[in-house]
Design brief:
globular; about 300 residues; three-stranded mixed sheet; seven-stranded parallel sheet; about 40% helix; alpha/beta
Length: about 300
């Protein structure tokens, strides 16, 4: 299958590209820079120049492919709502040229469920979720199933981990290194679901190959790791004390990631495993932290 992949040079996207090529698919990766284009060619993929703001380029890439995997997202936390709008427009543009074709279109979402529940694939997007700016994109993707597109949405957890991770866990490590303590809010009994990026990449491929139209897919390896355990692993990795802080001090300590330090999410991938024959095989988040690569000197968050 000839597959158009957006975000093909990103943390998740590079793993998806390798997974697809390894399974015998032909990959065309979206690249907005010369360095991204070079990396794609090295990986064995064809290059399609453009970015998420270039809707004509996205339409051309989607129209020329047998299927599309959309992993790109502009994580501009200074105006995250605008990033959500860009993502929606990108999905609408690619979806418009796939209508009536029956081709697979796999997009990326977050855990957009009602706070406080044990989330399953049957739970719809909720406006009070942790990432409400992504709700319209998920809904638009699923709606395309009624217009002849074999759509599915991969919901990624807060931590997609593994070597080269530059997101939230590295940001917590940077904060602990800077402050000299690894902190949790109160007793740290809130939870983060997590998945290794190689397991996630395999799931994207399976979704492309056989997900039913209008399917929500949960990329969940760890259903919910207590923040206490994450903070403890970071403290051990850096050799710093582990500290409990009250909610009132969370923003002062963590800055803008205090919201993520406080979230409590637990989720299942049981239906995903049954429907797609997927099972996580890579190390869980705590085992990954114990391997030591997160604490290598010079490693920093990209957020």
């Amino acid at each position: 299958m000839r597959v158009f992949v957006t975000g093909a040079s990103g943390f998740v996207g590079t793993a998806v590209v390798r997974e697809l090529i390894g399974a015998g698919h032909e990959v065309v990766g979206l690249a907005r820079s010369d360095s991204s284009a070079a990396a794609l060619r090295t990986a064995g993929a064809e290059v399609h120049r453009g970015d998420l703001d270039d809707l004509d380029s996205l339409r051309r890439g989607a129209a020329s492919a047998d299927g599309v995997i959309h992993t790109a997202f502009k994580h501009d936390f200074s105006n995250i709502a605008a990033s959500g709008v860009i993502d929606l427009h990108a999905i609408e543009a690619m979806g418009s040229v796939l209508e009536g074709t029956g081709k697979p279109f796999v997009t990326t979402s977050a855990f957009l469920v009602e706070p406080g529940i044990y989330a399953t694939e049957e739970d719809p997007a909720h406006p009070d979720s942790v990432a409400p700016f992504r709700v319209p994109s998920e809904e638009a993707t699923l709606a395309l199933a009624d217009r002849g597109v074999r759509t599915s949405v991969v919901r990624l957890p807060p931590s997609v981990h593994g070597p080269e991770d530059g997101a939230f866990v590295p940001k917590f490590i940077d904060t602990a290194r800077e402050k000299g303590v690894s902190a949790m809010i109160e007793d740290g009994t809130n939870h983060w679901p997590a998945v290794h990026r190689l397991d996630a990449a395999r799931l994207y491929r399976l979704a492309l190959e056989k997900a039913a139209p209008g399917t929500r897919i949960h990329a969940i390896g760890d259903e919910g790791v207590p923040l206490h355990d994450i903070a403890t692993a970071i403290g051990h990795g850096l050799g710093v004390p582990v500290l409990r802080i009250p909610h009132a001090e969370a923003t002062a300590h963590f800055g803008w990631i205090a919201h993520f330090a406080a979230m409590d999410l637990r989720a299942s991938s049981t239906l995903t495993q049954q429907r797609l024959g997927w099972k996580p095989e890579q190390p869980g988040l705590l085992a990954d932290l114990a391997e030591g690569h997160y604490f290598e000197e010079g490693r920093r968050s990209m957020l």
